[in-house]
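Project standup — Tuesday

K.O.: blocked on the structure for the chain from last sprint. Re-posting the sequence here as requested.
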Amino acid sequence: MCGQPIWGIAGVLSCSSLAYLSWGHVRREEFDWPHDSWSIVTYAVWILLMRGLLSETRCWRERIFFALVLTNFVLGFVLAIWNTVPNSAVREVRIISAALWALAAAVSLIVTFSSGSSTTATKKAGNV
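H.V.: unblocked you, prediction finished:
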């Protein structure tokens, strides 16, 4: 993502959209959560994907972005497997989720306009 503006823009747009949707649920007082098998599997796949991307990044800004997205998917997974989740807990998680998606969008915006060359965690010998 770092040094590749297209991925940063995609992150900004998708995370902004998800922040808007999450906050919309709070505004409309929609606190139901799907507990079906497909939702659980979908969250699990996203968690594995984000965990893999998080471990493969070299840019600290990417790591922050993927950690925020991973956290959101973990929250969704927990609510999906928790069949008796109270509406008050769902409301709180939706508020937290909206904030995390907004923060991820902001980090992605920073990634969009950052240079990838100066953000690598380790530099190869000879590139000093």
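K.O.: great, moving the ticket to review. The longest helix spans residues 87-112. Helices lie at 5-27, 37-56, 60-81, 87-112.
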